[in-house]
Design brief:
The structure holds 2 protein chains of 2 kinds.
Chain A (H helix, E strand, L loop, with lengths): L21 H5 L15 E7 L5 E7 L1 H5 L3 E6 H5 L5 E3 L5 E3 L5 E2 L5 E7 L2 H10 L1 E6 L28 E8 L1 H10 L2 E12 L8 E7 L4 E6 L4 H12 L9 E4 L15 H13 L3 E4 L2 H7 L2 E13 L5 E11 L28 E9 L6 E3 L7 H19 L3 H8 L8 E2 L5 E2 L4 H12 L1 H13 L3 E10 L11 E2 L2 E2 L2 E7 L5 E5 L8 H13 L6 E5 L16 H28 L6 E4 L2 E4 L2 E7 H10 L10 E6 L8 E10 L6 E11 L6 H21 L29 E5 L17 H18 L13 H10 L5
Parallel strand pairs in A: 1-14, 12-13, 15-18, 16-17, 25-26, 32-33
Antiparallel strand pairs in A: 1-7, 2-6, 2-8, 3-7, 4-5, 9-17, 10-15, 11-12, 11-14, 15-16, 19-20, 21-31, 22-23, 24-25, 24-30, 27-28, 28-29, 31-32
Helix pairs in contact in A: 9-17, 13-14, 14-15, 16-17
Chain B lengths: L6 E3 L4 H11 L3 E4 L5 H6 L7 E4 L9 E4 L2 E5 L4 H5 L2 H6 L1 H8 L4 H4 L4 H6 L7 H8 L2 E6 L2 E6 L4 E3 L2 E2 L6 E8 L4 E9 L9 E9 L5 E9 L6 E2 L1 H7 L6 H14 L10 H21 L3
Parallel strand pairs in B: 1-3, 2-3
Antiparallel strand pairs in B: 4-5, 5-10, 6-7, 6-10, 8-9, 11-12, 12-13, 13-14
Classes of the chains: A alpha+beta, B alpha+beta.
Chain lengths: 789, 288
């Protein structure tokens, strides 16, 4: 049970308040970008390349332009006149907006058709004839580094290979030395497959440029509206579009998961066309375009190694990564490291040496990658450490739960300095795993497993005990184009004691309108029902870096608490003035200040706010509002202990998740019901890459599963009954002791699932399975080891 | 859906619908539940010039026993069949199959007639109807004709329903002996086409000898397929484990699955063998 400091009426932290935003969502009254309709608005559709790598010989738009209602067809050559045919990526790489001569991946934008309605735009798109000269694409990231591989980025002066960057961290010599002398070394090559966020709402925008005012309003599916405004100003300042002339509005968003952080070519084309025509331009992707062209996630090839003693003490790890970034490095990664926070991959274990290195390559695949519900490559890191830990346990003959217990960082050892440079703020890993083991009845399950094996039945138990690193971020580690990654809250309390609070973040379903209100209610004692939350309009919200990487609570949530505390300090001054006592004589309880020892002498927060407008103390500024920009001193380090139990049909290889217990530790909890919802959603997006999802390309560069018929997004039917629980280890540096939680389940679930599947068939000689583990893949592996003839 | 332009007609009688088919020519399409046609139009793989919506025609949705047949109207929704008391106790195979067809929203709209008339070997009802030995009623300007399910499927998306004709009813002969039936498909996730599916219908005489066996296979052959050698291996036997194993083996040998993302040929043959064996057992278990 969570103890609440505030009454149910105030509804501060710990209350399972129903989400304020749901009233409009469940009634179909949300306002999404496709709901924006402006007078004179034109519609855009995009011609896309059927080939992964080809020269464009000719673009013939004449048939399209004959269709009544088709206004224009825009090509790379048209944009070239304004120097808008290329754009920078967030990783300081470059990306075509529209190509002038070569296409680099299937589904790449080739031309844009502008028409009076959506249907005519699509008809026009179908009528544009493009002649291509196909070239042999580079699809295999390992072959991309071959000496005779064609150099894909010949647009870059002096580029002689497909290598993008090299990165490393940790003490190589120390690590190598431990490996050389270790009792036991285990090694595993694994692929974290290319997947897609597949949010329900696709990407889109309405770019509305007003020629008379020289003003752009950009309605857009973005997780970071302020950052986008700054980017537009930096890119388009030369044509007079300076930052005060740009307003970015991010309306309701139907899921982001990192996929709505990047700037896609469609946005830029829409702005350019609106700028040239003066008409509002609407661009809304269809499902296939979203899946095939928008930024992918993951696609890390990892070789993980672990060294340790024969009695099961972990001593060192070594990870080597090959990152397939597709045609350009368009990662949505604001950290100072090209692999993001991959260096969290030493996990929850107490050992002193690690070395990690990564190389990135170009291939003829769509660019990326985004941090799909993940704090920049934490998912990849957690998969590697949790898989290799299981393999190590197997090698030394220890139960994987016991081996983890034996190696966990102890709770008294926090803050913990990791061998790759992080300072873990807090955690209690032993308590988490014990709680998960108690919940599933771990020892009984191991007995059942043995009995089942005797009968030829396969069941497996898989564990993942992960540490996340979220809340980007401290300015020493993070920035976007130099802008530090603080976030902001502005609270304005009206004379009657009701408030509006605005934030630089942007909810895409996380429930900010509820949780932020609860944080302010906690600190100010104003009922959360009376605190209106607003985000997403750059003209009204304070500057912030947006919502992704579980950063909203660690940054903007902290800003809300600090801002509210500033206001409470002001309220205290007013109370002292009204009650004619000194501030030291006052005590706070949620909703009022009272005189110590004389509780009947009290002023409620509502009375104090009213006084701020009607009877403020001499010398004090009137009004009751403030803003705070919070630059976190450290990241927060949520953790979890997940246990998955699978049953596998030994004939069909069907895999059924029987139970899944998730014990999360996200520090202090703001709204338990929202956290539970977050965990449920995240776990479902964790089962996705573990068992279902992967973007698959053939050698010719064709995507083989470019629609939802073959790109298998799990539904309620595939989801087991998630069993959730918590341990609470507050973050010592966060104002309300909270950590992020939105991404923990997505990060932690896949290795628990694959560990369970491998565990179920380990007696047949299987040591590893690549995700997604499908029945077909398992069948083939069982055939390989001779189980099926 | 951003389809190409099309005309739309909504007749209220079969006669009117047939007339409209003639008026609009080859590129007109019947719209029933729309769950196969509309996705194809959305992707612009199909671009009919006219949709003739038959949902306003009364009297095409029913499940009834009459004249020694179970009769199913072509516009009967999957969910109607799923929840029909009549089939629940007697034709378990429909309960098995409909529950595996997509999700409740799709089943509330998708029709049995459409599932067959689409002519796709990946659909589930073709194999079910093969196992049950169904006949299909087709109407045209001259009247109506009855086609055996074994002569119904011609090729990829091609059936005995010719231009100007409408599938109106499916007739399943009432079983003579003690009867049991079952269907299962392996699928990657809900709503997927079968990786492999097997429909089984078995009739036994009083002393337990198999007098009739129907086995249909889903999505492991270019056309919906009857596993004839498997059926023959069962009829006249007491259905020993060995008889059943033989039938399962023959089904896996006689189909011709192709490699795709669902699995390779080898895996699909393996599944056909496993599922055939299981469905024969399940059907037998249902015989009272």
């Amino acid at each position: 049970m969570i103890k609440c400091k505030t009454s149910k009426e105030i509804g501060g932290m710990g209350h399972s308040k129903k989400r304020k935003e749901d009233a409009r969502f469940i009634q179909g009254k949300g306002n999404y970008v496709d709901d924006v309709k402006l007078p004179g608005m034109l519609h855009m559709d995009i011609v896309r390349s059927p080939y992964a790598y080809a020269k464009i010989k000719k673009i013939d738009a004449s048939k399209a332009l004959e269709i009544p209602g088709v206004i224009a067809v825009v090509t790379g050559k048209d944009l070239e006149q304004y120097n808008l045919h290329w754009m920078p990526t967030l990783m300081s790489d470059t990306q075509m907006v529209l190509p002038t001569d070569t296409v680099m991946y299937q589904a790449q934008e080739v031309a844009a058709v502008i028409a009076t309605d959506r249907y005519t735009a699509r008809d026009g798109k179908e009528a544009v004839i493009v002649e291509y000269e196909q070239m042999k694409p580079v699809m295999d990231p390992f072959k991309a580094l071959d000496e005779d591989a064609p150099v894909l980025r010949s647009d870059k002066e002096g580029k002689t290979d497909n290598h993008i960057w090299h990165w490393e961290v940790g003490d190589k010599d120390k690590t190598d030395q431990i490996f050389d002398n270790a009792d036991v070394v285990v090694k595993q090559q694994m692929h974290i497959p290319r997947i897609h966020v597949a949010s329900i709402e696709t990407c889109g925008c309405v770019a509305a440029y007003n020629k008379v005012e020289n003003h752009l309003t950009m309605y857009m599916t973005t997780q970071a509206p302020h950052a986008i405004r700054t980017v537009i100003a930096l890119v388009a300042g030369h044509v007079g579009l300076t930052e005060e002339k740009i307003r970015v509005i991010s309306p309701d968003i139907g899921g982001g998961f990192g996929g709505k952080v990047p700037v896609y070519p469609g946005y830029v084309i829409a702005i350019a066309v609106s700028f040239l025509t003066g008409a509002p331009i609407k661009w809304i992707e269809d499902r296939s375009e979203n899946l095939q062209a928008d930024s992918f996630a993951r696609d890390y090839h990892i070789t993980a190694e672990m060294a340790g003693t024969k009695d099961g003490k972990i001593q060192a790890t070594r990870f080597k990564v090959l990152a397939d970034h597709g045609y350009t490095d368009a990662s949505a990664n604001p950290s100072k490291f090209p692999t993001g926070l991959f260096s969290i991959g030493t996990g929850s274990y107490d050992y002193g040496a690690a070395y990690m290195e990564a190389d990135a390559v170009y291939t003829n695949k769509p660019p990326g990658g985004v941090a799909y519900r993940c704090s920049f490559r934490v998912t990849e890191a957690v998969h590697a450490i949790e898989r290799i830990t299981d393999k190590f346990a197997k090698e030394v003959g220890k139960d994987p739960a016991q081996l983890r217990m034996d190696n966990f960082i102890k709770k008294e050892d926090f803050p913990w300095a990791s061998p790759t440079g992080w300072s873990y703020d807090s955690g209690d890993y032993h308590a988490g795993l014990q709680k998960a083991m108690d919940a599933v009845g771990y020892d009984e399950l191991r007995k059942e497993q043995l009995e089942k094996r005797e009968q030829g039945k396969w069941m497996g138990i898989g564990i993942s005990t992960f540490t996340e690193v979220v809340g980007a971020g401290p300015s020493k580690n993070f920035d976007i184009l130099g802008v530090k990654m603080f976030d902001s809250a502005e609270i304005r309390v009206h004379p009657t004691g009701k408030a509006i609070a605005r934030f630089g973040t942007k909810s895409q379903g996380q429930g900010h309108e509820t949780t932020y209100a609860q944080i302010v209610a906690e600190e100010l004692g104003i009922p959360m029902e009376h605190i209106q939350i607003e985000e997403g309009d750059t003209d009204t919200a304070p500057y912030g870096l947006g919502t992704y990487a579980s950063r909203s609570t660690p940054t903007a949530g902290a800003a809300a608490a600090v801002a509210a505390r500033k206001l409470r300090a002001k309220a205290k001054k007013i109370a002292a003035y009204l009650l004619e006592v000194s501030e030291e004589d006052l005590e706070w309880e949620p909703g009022k200040f009272f005189v110590k020892g004389a509780p009947e002498k009290a002023k409620t927060i509502q009375e104090l706010v009213f006084a701020a407008y009607t009877n403020h103390p001499p010398g004090m500024e009137a009004g009751f509002e403030t803003t705070h920009y919070y630059d976190p001193p450290n990241l927060t380090f949520p953790s979890g202990a997940y246990i998955c139990i699978v049953d596998i049909d030994s004939e069909t290889c069907d895999i059924k998740v029987r139970r899944f217990v998730a014990i999360d530790d996200c520090g202090n909890i703001i709204n338990p019901m929202i956290v539970q919802g977050q965990v449920h959603g995240g776990l479902t997006q964790g089962i996705a890459p573990a068992m279902y999802e992967e973007l698959i390309y053939d050698e010719a560069g064709n995507i083989l599963n470019g629609t939802f018929m073959d790109y298998l997004v799990p539904t309620a039917v595939e989801s087991p009954n998630w069993e959730t629980g918590h341990t609470v280890t507050p973050s010592p540096h966060h104002p309300i002791g909270a950590k992020g939680v939105g991404e923990s389940p997505t990060v932690g679930a896949p290795p628990a699932i694959v560990n369970a599947i491998v565990d179920a068939v380990s007696h047949l000689g299987i040591e590893h399975l690549e995700i997604p583990v499908t029945p077909f893949k398992l069948y083939k592996k069982l055939k390989e080891v001779g189980y099926f003839k | 859906m951003i389809a190409e332009k099309f005309n739309y007609e909504a007749p209220t009688t079969i006669k009117e619908a047939i007339q409209l088919l003639h008026e609009h020519g080859d590129e007109a399409k019947i719209l029933a539940g729309g769950h196969s046609l509309i996705p194809m139009m959305k992707l612009r793989f199909a671009a009919p010039t006219c949709l003739i919506d038959i949902n306003n025609i009364e009297g095409l949705s029913y499940v009834k026993e009459e004249d020694g047949f179970l009769k199913i109207g072509a516009l009967t929704r999957e969910s109607d069949l799923e929840h029909s008391d009549l089939v629940r106790d007697k034709y378990h195979i429909f309960g098995d199959a409909t529950k595996l067809i997509a999700d409740p929203q799709v089943r509330n709209f998708g029709t049995i007639g459409g599932n067959l008339a689409h002519g796709d070997a990946a659909n589930d009802h073709p194999a079910v109807m093969i196992a049950l030995g169904a006949e299909v009623e087709i109407e045209n300007v001259e009247g109506s004709r009855s086609v055996s399910i074994d002569e119904f499927f011609y090729g990829f998306y091609m059936t005995a329903v010719q231009h100007g004709e409408i599938l109106t009813e499916i007739k399943i002969p009432a079983p003579a002996g003690r009867f049991g039936s079952a269907y299962h498909k392996a699928e990657r996730k809900v709503g997927d086409y079968a990786t492999a599916g097997v429909a089984v219908a078995i009739e036994l005489d009083a002393d337990g000898t198999c007098t009739k066996a129907g086995i249909g296979l889903t999505n492991v052959n270019p056309l919906p397929m009857r596993a004839e050698r498997s059926e023959a291996a069962l009829v006249g036997t007491k259905l020993s484990e060995e008889d059943i194993a033989n039938a399962a083996l023959y089904a896996s040998e006689d189909c011709s699955p192709s490699d795709d993302l669902r699995g390779d040929e080898d895996y699909k043959r393996h599944l056909v063998k496993v599922i055939t064996k299981r469905m024969i057992h399940r059907a037998l278990g249902r015989i009272k």
